[in-house]
Amino acid sequence: MVFVFTWLRAVLLFYRSIAPFMLGISGLILAAVLLPALHEGWGEGLLPGLLLTKLATAPVVWYLSEQLRPGQYWFYFNLGVSRRRLWSGVVALDGLLFLGGVLAMRAGVA
Amino acid sequence: MSPAGPQVLEADGIQVAFAGRQVLASIYLRVQTGQIVGLLGRNGSGKSVLLQTIFGTRTVADASVRVNGRRVVPAFRQPGLLNYLPQEPLLPPSLTLRQAARLLGVDLGAATARFPELRTQFDCRIGELSGGSARLLQTLLLLHADTAFSLFDEPFSGVMPVHVETLADEMQRLKQRKGLLLTDHRHAEVLPLCDVVYLLHHGRLLKLEGNVKEALRDYGYLAH
To answer: Looking at the 3D structure of chain A, how many domains does it have?
Structure first.
């Protein structure tokens, strides 16, 4: 239980450092694809494809993050959190935020 | 220290080569709670690689890291076992010291009790501190964290002499409950602290006994 709590806090902290990239990509997908689709009336059924597109961008952010900040993990390692656990949490959180964005946009347009 | 007695951290079977050059070849290292163990070696001898391999963030095939005979790879995933101070900044830039201490489970007031001038910096982010203060505070955070072992890669780097002396006293005091493995080129400060001294020399880890300074001169680590 203690570890799960530490992991969640580590994921939130780490997400803050990459949020500009992750949220930027989400915003781009929503604004460039979903919003016009909803306005033109063909937005229904787009969600799985958009979510997959969003998930497919995670490796790009991961790669850039590794290249630009190779020493960023030491604090998380000292909390007992590995790279894999950190990134799996970040991808899940980002996916949920993206999903929230999609639903909010749908509700806003409807 | 564990109520069941001292804990013993051992590492061996570590072989690392870079571009065909064998950096680590014949390694056996032992640290016990209640001990400060010094790891010396020339630049590029593989000290940081060895520490990171023991910590478990560098994967080395056949590496064996054990605590009381039980394999613990990767060691950093074992709760309360060990922590590691890298040469580069430890803390994320967005985090204040107070937040970092809370996440690490450290009482920041107690950790800095011997350094009252640092108390005004608890709400600073690491990038807002001087290099020496940042290094000292990061070392103190890990030193006071509740782990059985701490691995320190150049903890005295950039720290002013008066703080080095106090930090060394803190290490001596806290070794009562944990084992410390440290590497630092400030041998004048490190050697008096250590119960055991190892030298990494051409990929081999040599345990120095007897006249340590003379041995360091013989192996070309010291000039005089």
So the answer is: 1
Residue at B124 is within a domain: yes
B1, part of any domain: no
Catalogue the E-assigned strands of B102-195: 149-153, 179-183
Asked if A82 reaches chain B (Cβ–Cβ under 8 Å), the answer is yes
Q: What is the mean pLDDT of each run of 10 residues along chain B (224 residues)?
A: 78 92 92 98 96 96 95 96 97 94 96 96 93 96 98 97 97 97 95 97 95 95 91
| Structure token pair of residue B126 | 């690491």
Tokens of A82: 């590995």
In this prediction the ipTM stands at 0.94
Q: What is the token pair recorded at B217?
A: 């001169």
Q: Which of A7, A15, A78, A85 to mutate to test the interface with B (most CBs of B within 10 A)?
A: A78
CATH number, domain containing residue B34: 3.40.50.300
Q: Structural domain tally of chain B? A: 1
B76–A contact, CB cutoff 8 A? yes
Q: Do A82 and B77 make contact, defined as CB atoms within 8 angstroms? A: yes
Residue B3 lies in a domain: no
Mutation target to probe the A interface, by most A beta carbons within 10 A, among B48, B72, B77, B146 is B77
Q: What is the mean pLDDT of residues A60-69?
A: 94
Residue B159: its pLDDT value, please? 97
Q: Torsion over CA of B36, B41, B47 and B51, rounded to 10 degrees?
A: -10
* Residue range A79-83: mean pLDDT, rounded: 96
CA dist., res. B74 & res. B33, Å (int): 19
State pTM to two decimals: 0.94
B126 and B101 in contact (C-beta within 8 Å)?
no
**What per-residue confidence (pLDDT) applies to B162?**
96
In a domain, residue B206? The reply is yes
- pLDDT at res. B3: 52
State the Cα–Cα distance between residues B21 and B30, nearest whole angstrom.
Answer: 25
Please list the alpha-helical segments (H only) found in A30-82.
35-40, 47-68, 74-78
